[in-house]
Specification:
With 136 residues, this protein is of the alpha+beta class. The chain has five helices and five strands; from the N terminus they run H-H-E-E-E-E-H-E-H-H. Strand 1 and strand 2 form a beta hairpin. This is RNA-binding S4 domain-containing protein.
């Protein structure tokens, strides 16, 4: 299960920070994976004890490597190979965004009218209809 040399992109994919290895490599090339504030290349060798700052699509991570994992496993097993050191304020920002965007409800007075509002509008518009139009 453990290897002597392991690339950072493969490690981030295996601990489930990114869905695909190519996304992990792309994040490295864009400078979204850093060690001590310095961007790293996808080919960097991971060592136990390294701390990485990662900006993924969903959230920001600060991860300390506690074990080397070279293949993708279940999340419940993957969490044993790193320690999440992400500051609480970054986690709170993610939770507040999730609460605002994933409610599934339309915000009041934004977007298309509801059926009830449309009926009210139609009734209002019929009052102002021209003389030749029939009203029911």
């Amino acid at each position: 299960m453990e290897k002597e040399k392991l690339r950072i992109d493969k490690y981030l994919w295996s601990i489930r920070v990114f869905k695909t290895r190519s996304q992990a490599a792309d994040a490295c090339s864009r400078g979204r994976v850093k060690v001590q504030g310095t961007p790293v290349k996808a080919s960097r060798v991971v060592s136990i004890g390294d701390e990485y700052e990662i900006r993924a699509e969903a959230r920001k991570w600060v991860v300390k490597v506690t074990g080397l994992l070279d293949h993708r496993v279940q999340y419940s097993e993957a969490v044993n190979f790193y320690t999440d050191l992400t500051p609480p304020e970054d986690l709170d920002a993610v939770k507040s965004q999730a609460a605002a965007f994933n409610t599934g409800k339309r915000q009041s007075k934004i977007g298309r009218p509801t059926k009830r509002e449309r009926r009210d509008l139609d009734g209002f518009m019929d009052i102002d209809a021209p003389d030749g139009a029939e009203q029911e």
